[in-house]
Amino acid sequence: MAMAGKKPTKAELTSVPIEHLDLTKTQSVADLVDGYKRISFQARTLGTCASVLENAMTDPQCTLFFGGAGALTPGGLRKVMRDLVEYGLVDVVVTTGAIAYHDFYEAHGHRHWATDPETDDMMLREHFLDRVYDTLADEDLFRECDDEIAALADSLEPRPYSSREFLEHMGKIASKDPNSLVGTCYR
Fold it and tell me: Domains of the chain by range and CATH?
C-alpha cells in the first residue's frame, strides 16, 4: 500500500497477506464479492468498489454521481443507467453526448445490432450502417434524429444554453419512452 511522504519499510509493505478465497464458505454473491477484497488483481478492485458503494448507499449525507463515457447505450447498458436514476441509486448523471444521443435514438424506437468487429467498413457504408466496434446503428435513422435535434434547437429562444438545459428539452421528447435515460432524468 502506498504511503505518502515516506519510504515504507519491508514490514509495512508485507503487512496485508492475500487470503485465498474459499468457495465452501461462500453462500451468496455478497459473500463472494466480500471475499474478493482479500485476494488480488481486479477481484480486489471489485471488492473495494462494492465496499465504497455500500458505504455510499448507507450514508444519508452522500451525493452519488454517475459518470458515463463510451458506447454504454449501444453496448446494452441503457436500462441499467436508467434504473440508477429511476430507483434513486444516483443523484447526478454526468455523461458524454454520445450516451445521450444514442439514448435519444433508441427512445424513438430505433435499435442497435450486434455484428462481428471485423465486418468490412466499406460494405457497411454501402448499407448506410455505422459501426461502434461490434455494434451497428442505421445512419439514415441517425440523420432523422439529427434533423429532430436541429429542429428542436431552432425552436428555442436564441440564447446560450447549458448542456443540462438542452438535454432537458431532449428529455421531454425522450420521456415518451419509459426506458430512456434522458427521459427519466427529465421526469
Answer: 14-60 (no CATH), 63-186 (3.40.910.10)
